Each structure stands twice: as C-alpha cells, then as structure tokens.
C-alpha cells in the first residue's frame, strides 16, 4: 500500500465537513470516470481490519505474479561472455545489461538489413 502525504489540512468547521461529505461519492453522487479508473484495481473489504485486507489482496494477486498489463517481452537465457566484454559493459554503470542488449540489437539489425525495433 502506498502512503501519500497531502498538504491539504482537514476540515475544521462543521460546514467544511458537510461540504466534504456532500462532494464524496455515495448514494447521492456516483463515481466520475477518473475515480472509476483509479479504483479499477482496488480491493474492497468491509470490516475485518488489517487481516481481512491482507486476505483480500492475497486472493486478488499472488506474490510474484505479474499483473495483466505486464507481458514478458524478453526471454531469460544463460550465456557466457568473455571477461573483457562484461568488464566493458559493467564499467558503463547502471543499465549495462540494457546497453548490451541495444548493442546486440544494433548488430543484428545491421546484419539483417532491418530497421531497429522500438525499445
């Protein structure tokens, strides 16, 4: 769960509380499209506290499971490279594996005569 700090101060007067409650979705006001979008992946739990929330989240998605929006685009392989090649790419810092992939893609595209595909 993400915790976000807001700079808004809570309502102070009864009139401010009434205005806040009136603006909230419920039986008097339905959700807007933006609110529905934000709540699309929400887990709703009525009662039960923290344990009920954890159980509901566990039913929705198992730990380590990819969400529906993420599809694997690369394949996991085991490859052996010379120490010089690894030392060169690792010396370029964070993201060296991505740069190595880009260098290999460039080589493949030059050999096959195709244009580079999007990242």
What would you note in describing this structure?
Helix content is 45%, strand content 0%. With 119 residues, the protein is mostly helical. The chain folds into two domains: 14-60, no CATH class; 72-119. The chain is elongated and about 70 Å long. It starts with 13 loop residues before the first helix and ends in a 7-residue tail after the last helix.
Q: Would you tell me the overall average pLDDT?
A: 79
- What is the number of helices? 5
Helix/strand structural class: mainly alpha
Percent of residues in helices: 40-55%
Please tell me how large the radius of gyration is: 25 Å
Please describe the biggest sheet, giving its number of strands, its sense, and whether it closes into a barrel.
none
User: How much strand content do the residues show?
Assistant: under 5%
Tell me the number of structural domains. Answer: 2
Based on Cα principal axes, name the global outline. Answer: elongated
- Termini, distance in Å? 30 Å
Q: What is the strand tally?
A: 0
The SSE order reads HHHHH
Q: List the uncertain runs.
A: none
């Amino acid at each position: 769960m993400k915790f976000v700090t807001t700079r808004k101060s809570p309502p102070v007067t009864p009139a401010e509380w009434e205005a806040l409650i009136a603006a909230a979705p419920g039986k008097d006001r339905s959700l807007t499209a933006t609110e529905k979008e934000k709540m699309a992946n929400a887990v709703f739990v009525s009662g039960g506290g923290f344990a009920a929330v954890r159980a509901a989240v566990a039913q929705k998605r198992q730990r380590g499971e990819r969400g529906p929006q993420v599809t694997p685009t690369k394949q996991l392989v085991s490859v052996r490279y010379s120490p010089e090649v690894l030392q060169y790419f690792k010396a370029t810092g964070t993201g060296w594996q991505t740069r190595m992939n880009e260098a290999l893609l460039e080589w493949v595209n030059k050999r096959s005569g195709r244009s580079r595909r999007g990242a």
